[in-house]
Specification:
The protein is mainly alpha-helical. Helices cover 76% and strands 0% of the residues. The chain folds into 2 domains: 1-41; 52-115, no CATH class. The radius of gyration is 31 Å and the shape is rod-shaped. The relative contact order is 0.09.
Length: 119
């Protein structure tokens, strides 16, 4: 093997330098072409806090009509389970459902107080 002897290694590298450099240039060119062919597609999974938008919208829906909020939260959880979605879908569904249940409970409690059933 030429690498065991330092002088033979240097000689081998000197003799094969043009081939090595040509191969490196070719690999760089191939990498550039592949990078250009790959389009930068936007990610379907938001990396930041983009999943807060559905939570806010679902919370507003739950505040407006808790039954619709429970439906939206339950539907979100069903879609997350059926299509094996990521953890963000589960969080959104659980939060919307929890907010809707809270508003439903609050409406029931305030309706009971208004009718004089509870004190």
């Amino acid at each position: 093997m030429p690498y065991k002897d330092l002088e033979r290694k240097k000689e081998w590298e000197r003799l094969h330098r043009p081939q090595r450099l040509a191969r490196r240039r070719e690999l760089r060119r191939i990498e550039t072409v592949q990078r250009a062919d790959r389009r930068e597609e936007p990610s379907t999974q938001s990396g930041g806090l983009g999943f807060l938008i559905p939570i806010v919208a679902g919370g507003a829906l739950a505040a407006y009509d808790p039954k619709l909020g429970m439906g939206a939260g339950g539907l979100t959880l069903a879609v997350a389970a059926f299509f094996s979605k990521g953890w963000r879908w589960w969080v959104v569904g659980i939060v919307i459902l929890a907010v809707a249940l809270f508003f439903y409970w609050d409406n029931q409690t305030s309706a009971g107080l208004r009718s004089g059933q509870k004190e």
